[in-house]
Specification:
Blueprint: E1 2-5, H1 7-12, H2 14-17, E2 22-26, E3 41-45, H3 70-88, E4 95-102, E5 114-118, E6 120-123, E7 135-136, H4 137-144, E8 156-161, E9 176-177, E10 188-189, H5 190-202, E11 227-229, E12 234-235, H6 241-247, E13 254-256, H7 259-268, E14 271-278, E15 288-289, E16 292-293, E17 305-311, H8 328-334, E18 338-342, H9 348-357, E19 362-366, E20 387-390, H10 392-400, E21 413-423, H11 478-485
Parallel strand pairs: 3-4, 4-8, 9-10, 17-18, 18-19, 19-20
Antiparallel strand pairs: 1-6, 2-3, 5-8, 6-7, 11-12, 11-13, 14-15, 14-21, 16-20, 17-21
Helix pairs in contact: 3-5, 7-11
Length: 487
Amino acid sequence: MTTASLPALRRALAAASAALPAILTLCACLGAATATAAVPVVVLNGDAAGEGFNDPTPAAPVGGNAGTTLGEQRLIAFTYAANIWGSQLTSTVPIRILARFDPLPCTASSGVLGSAGAWDVYADFPGALKPNTWYPAALASKLSGTDQSPASDPHIGATFNSRLGLAADCLPGAGFYLGLDGNFGSGTDLVTVLLHEIAHGLGFQTFTDEANGAYYAGTPSIWDHYLLDNQLERSWVEMTPPQRAASAISGNGLSWNGATVNASVPGVLGPVSRLGISGPAAGPAAHDYEVGDASFGPPLANPPLTGQVLPVVDQSNGTGLACAPLSPLNALAVKHNVALVDRGSCPFVQKALNVQNAGAIAMIVVDSVPGPLTGLGGADPAITIPAIRVSQTDGNAIRGQLLRRSRTRSGVIASLGVNPMRLAGTDAERRILMYAPNPVQPGSSVSHYSTDAKPNQLMEPFLSGDLSHDVAPPRDLTLPLLKDIGW
């Protein structure tokens, strides 16, 4: 058997391991129907007295979480998420998770919610499905039937942001929602974040360097056997380091090629959304566009929603942010039409509510910078109109055809629907795409699903407002991937 430690993660959690943490066993039995699949989870509480899981700040029970202090509610939410994963997996070896709350990087508009991963990796142990291949500690122990890690070590290390929503410079107003019912409103659902991060620790990650394509300690990970460059039709274990590095920044060129995920994709992912532009004034802008879906409002569907495109103009340069209730002239323009607005200055849901309140039937958001197309994040059940995002180049092409409009008509017609021949977030062979932006985003690239998937998946790199606590089909493809690698 070969073993190796993951030094970056260990350094990040060194203080936790030195704290002689309290041990809490979470029985993941959710009833007789799932008892045979239950995996006991042992939480190593890495927080010092008075912080994190031990924070004594009084808290009112919320959303099924009966804890009466902030620390207790955090632990109950962690228990709940661990139970979900434990009920889905099989192993005779309890899974140990070293967990803590610490300040993580954040600003007033964005932040790191948490991070987690395998504590150690193992190769060539009894029961390994592939030789000369790294497996994360929890999976290696499951496959061998014997704990591969020293009893004093965790299998998974995890840290979550202790300042989120509690400080003016760390996503104020979007702190962790500690309820268990998913009714997080404008908050950040902690259970969803926990499910995501625990999945990384279970093996939803590569140990190969995505920037240079080099194997960790000269050995591929089990992940690399299923990563496929869909242009070369080669897995990462069949490629050279430079080829793997190029694949990691290939956009839509990187797919997952595991049998369980491939079989599950058609029952989980929906058709790709499309925006068609036509009409007497559309000119060279008349064609179909790729779009990013919103996590709020109704999804696009067929028959398509159609309407004339009218811009919101509330900036001196002729653009429109729609961050405030629309002026009478802008409201007159977008009423019964499709509102074209620009990204920036306020949340997407605020823009959507403002144009909806003015009578718009849909919203198109033009990106403010060049780059890969992504969706529109946020959540607000009050939004009843569809919304999509287009690239800066495409948005400017559409805007250029609106210069000769009247106050209420433009002659540029938008058709918002779906293409039933393509599944969102998949390649030509209907294999789900992996996240491979250019340049590489350390910690996100390669070890997540593409942001193009619809519905949004738990293991995308960004938290979406439409996620549930499901980890399996027909809603989610996280469990099928873990099954592919050996769970």
